[in-house]
Amino acid sequence: MRLIKQRLINILLFCMMFFAFIPICSAEKLPEIKFDDTSYNFGIAGPGEEIKHIFKFINTGTSLLEIENISTDCGCTAALISNQKILPNGKGEIEITFKTGRYEGKQKGTITIYSNDLNNKKVSLIVEGEVKRDIAVIPEGLALGDIEQGKSINNTVKILQLSSEALVINKLEFNKKYIDVKKSLFEDKNSRGIKLDISLKDNILAGIFNEIITIHTNLKKYPKLDIPIWGNIIGGIQVIPSSFSFGKVLKGVKFSEYITILSKDKKNLEGLKITCDLPFIKTNLLPDKDNKSIKIELYVDKISPSGKISSQLTIHTNDPLQKIIKIPIYGLIK
Predict the structure, then answer these.
(1) Residue 285: domain span
(2) pLDDT band at 239 (very low <50, low <70, confident <90, very high)
(3) Which of 3, 16, 45, 195 sits most deeply, having the most CB atoms within 10 A of its CB?
(4) What domain of life is recorded for the organism (predicted)?
């Protein structure tokens, strides 16, 4: 009995010594695929173009990453241009090629990447954009917002060449007093055409600014293109808001709103005159005690007819650079 007991003790000691020399198991090593981005928008392209883009990824895991398969559901092809097996912290690249061919309109395709990343076995990459024919103007208009008087503004408009017929601009028409336009050829990654560098001069009078650049081309389908430009030139006197809408007003109910006039350089604003094209839109001047700002009460008289309101408020000021300010007014009387 004593012998058996001693043997059991020896076996227990041996097991304790054996397991003491076994290292503690570390966390399981796994690959992990991580893309810099998973979508690409090529914007606008023409027929017969070849769109290319490279999706980059990295193995952020702790073991070897393997790209097992790549499939597409669109008219594009995908190729692994790096190694199929990526070490930890290693980088890889997948090149996508989309031939626009006879496609037209908005396009969206998915490329699926399969790997040995157990937590992310497949990753979807998106390629999208629009295929147009003949010509495209980007942007179709320039909304400049609020601009301080005396500052010059620069913008760019691109006219994309989307057909086999070479695009030629025969003539440009614009208000040379306030605008300067220079044209040049351009070629980007996925597009080409004519670029217009548009500059607004610093002599534009304060108030709502509306101009149009007219482009005359050699294309029979699009012989003339108009690019509208609009904004609000803010001078020494600022009107808030620069355009006004009543919304819906019930007929026979007096409904008032307010417009604020501010003097940025603290000039005296006494003696302003306000008129409106519509006789049933009434105004009251409410100057502050220091005459540095004025609040205009604007209301629709109860004798007003029903229908849409489309008019403008004309504010006469004592500022030599901003003698007249016009504010568009909109609304609906029910």
Answers:
(1) 237-333
(2) confident
(3) 45
(4) Bacteria
